[in-house]
Amino acid sequence: MSEFSIPPQKTYSKEYQHVEEDDIAQIQEIFKAFDSSNRSRVPIDQLPQILRLLNKNISEKDASELQYEIDKKHRGYFTFNDLIQLLSDFQFKEDTEMDLLNALQELDQGADGFIPKETFTHFLTTMGEVFNQDELNEFMKYALDENNTDDLIDIRRLSKIMLPKIQARKELLQENLTNNIDSGKLKK
């Protein structure tokens, strides 16, 4: 009997969608921040950072594939319109509290729901988008409970702190849906 592993799921899929006008202003602002040459184009290697700022959490492999998608002519850059087209062509998977919990559990060597401060500090200063000392200090204020004397980070508490907008987004969506039903905008 051979063992197999389930390949990791992509964080995006080809699925056409409309980019909302409200989002376009935010996307444009972020794009301009990366357009250091003021030539209305951004180097292709900046795409992952832009997507992460837009809350599109992608893996390194996904980043390479998306860089190819946005720059098939190998120009080395992309324009604002290219970015909007990419965001229109692909549906990105949103992080959920469970996704974050699963990721944090990878650092939970004792499988007890806690990560030692030292392990978490090492992770934040060496992996992914590296935190500088000021960012690390600020983040640790939130990560460690003020009454915590063991220097252990509760991963459930941390996931709630890091993704508070998930619950707020669900509540807003439910409120909008309820308002639309009450006002007769949605038909049964």
UniProtKB/TrEMBL annotation:
Residue span(s) of domain EF-hand: 95-130
Entry's transmembrane regions: none
KW Metal-binding (keyword) present: yes
Keyword DNA repair belongs to the record: no
GO MF annotation, one: calcium ion binding
Main location group: cytoplasm
This protein's UniProt keywords: Acetylation, Calcium, Cytoplasm, Cytoskeleton, Metal-binding, Repeat
Xref: PROSITE patterns: EF_HAND_2
Subcellular location: Cytoplasm, Cytoskeleton
GO cellular component: myosin II complex
Family as reported in the entry's similarity comment: Belongs to the centrin family.
Role, per record: Plays a fundamental role in microtubule organizing center structure and function. Component of the infraciliary lattice (ICL) and the ciliary basal bodies.
Protein name per Swiss-Prot or TrEMBL: Calmodulin
